[in-house]
């Protein structure tokens, strides 16, 4: 770590849970973020500012004016640009030392299988169940920790699905594919702007803890936020032996 990095990350280095060794682990780490919208924006900005050495951002959508109400990584000047490229530019303006790979393809099974294998931690910042389950499949296949977030209207949730832990569930244990509800999105339902900031920031915090190796992750716990009353509900969740993705067959 050079002198400029020691200065930039000094507030992390002062923390006993991180220190120089933890910051060095962040600098050597690779985080994969799927989704560069409301959740992906704060998650990517915090991982970049914290010094995660390599961040891959996947999103095939382009920035629209309606995104700017909550997707804080994007700007008026970048309307029409791919969101992944916009986030890469935003991170570079904060921390040019971070290597950002922007992938402007749809996150299908083949792409996820390739990208998840290379990552140290995966953040699901998407907004549809089909992609969430595809991400989960890839994370279980390659034994990578998955930090999952969701936000719609005034309700949010966040958890960690870490198949490396024997008792920890995968995403499909808690939300089976066969029981997936009808898709809804903020274009028709709306979303409270700060809600995605809260959930996305929590995703970045969980990812940083996993990369540094301190504290207790949300594996086995699902946190649900009611932003109307600013109240959290914690639900304990366990691996399901009959899960079609991570269960014993």
Number of domains: 1
Q: Major sheet: size, sense and barrel closure? A: 8 strands, mixed
The low-confidence parts are none
- Average predicted confidence as pLDDT: 95
Shape: globular
Structural class: alpha/beta
CATH homologous superfamily, by name?
A: NAD(P)-binding Rossmann-like Domain
Q: Mind explaining what this structure looks like?
A:
The longest helix has 20 residues. Helix 4 links the parallel strand 1 and strand 2. Helix 4 runs parallel beside helix 5. It is built from ten helices and eight strands.
Structural topology:
Layout: H1 3-8, H2 10-13, H3 19-27, E1 30-34, H4 40-50, E2 54-58, H5 83-94, E3 99-103, H6 109-118, E4 121-124, H7 129-142, E5 146-152, E6 155-161, H8 171-174, H9 186-189, H10 193-212, E7 221-226, E8 231-236
Parallel strand pairs: 1-2, 1-4, 2-3, 4-5
Antiparallel strand pairs: 5-6, 6-7, 7-8
Helix pairs in contact: 4-5, 4-10, 6-7
Concise summary:
This protein is of the alpha/beta class and 249 residues long. The chain is built from ten helices and eight strands.
